[in-house]
Amino acid sequence: MRRLRGKQGLLMGIFALALVAAACGKSASASEGNGGTTTTPSPSMAPSPSYSRPPSTTKTVVEGPGNSFAFMPSTITVRQGSTLMLKNVSDTAHTFTVTGQGIDVETQPGQTSQLTIDLKPGTYPFICRFHQSLGMTGTLVVKA
Asked: CB-based burial of residue 130 (10 Å sphere; 0-12 exposed, 13-18 middle, 19+ buried)?
């Protein structure tokens, strides 16, 4: 057998590799029904469908941001059955109190409390019992 050298040998080697690569790259398989071949299409670059997550049923209320006597946000809109996360970021205890509705949650400095809102749809004022006189008040809007 004669050995090829130089450019001719290099070109023949590249050609042989290209043929092998092309043969390996095809996705051909024997068809069960007629013995022929079928080609499996390559995946398209079409975007995949997007799936939206249901809206979160938890809202966070920050108590005492910057050691202020305030709720952030001061108006909170939730759906009935949602959870409120009360996050006290101040150096003093605060309450989240909806007077006359059985809601009175005290949260210590640096702590977080949770509360499920089971009130009927409507608008409810809320306060911090400790700091209401300093303006720590807000409005809770409950939707069906």
From this structure: middle
pTM (global) more than 0.85: no
Instruction: Pick 58-143's CATH classification: 2.60.120.10, 2.60.120.260, 2.60.40.420, 3.60.9.10.
Output: 2.60.40.420
Distance, in Å, from the CA atom of 46 to the CA atom of 44, rounded to the nearest integer, reads 5
Tell me the pLDDT tens digit for each residue of 62-95. 999 999 999 999 999 999 999 999 999 999 999 9
Residue 124 φ then ψ, to 5°? -130, 130
* Amino acid at residue number 118: D
Whether the ω angle into residue 65 lies within 30 degrees of 0, i.e. cis, is: no
